[in-house]
Specification:
By secondary structure, this protein is an all-alpha fold. The chain is globular and about 40 Å long. Helix 1 crosses helix 3. It starts with 11 loop residues before the first helix and ends with a helix.
Length: 66
Amino acid sequence: MTDQKTPRSLPLSEAITVAAQAIGEVMSGRPLTEVLDQLEAHEHPIVQSLSFDALRKWIRSHGLIK
């Protein structure tokens, strides 16, 4: 029997997929906070962390390429 108070965890593969979709929306001009606000509570922390890290690295890499 599952404890209803225990938050459901999101498998890493799903978190990466959702984060990639979120980043795609950000690249299309949508604010990340708006995208994250539409996620379920158990998805938000890991997707936010992955998205923030990927976007930070993208900004640095893009700057180096220029």
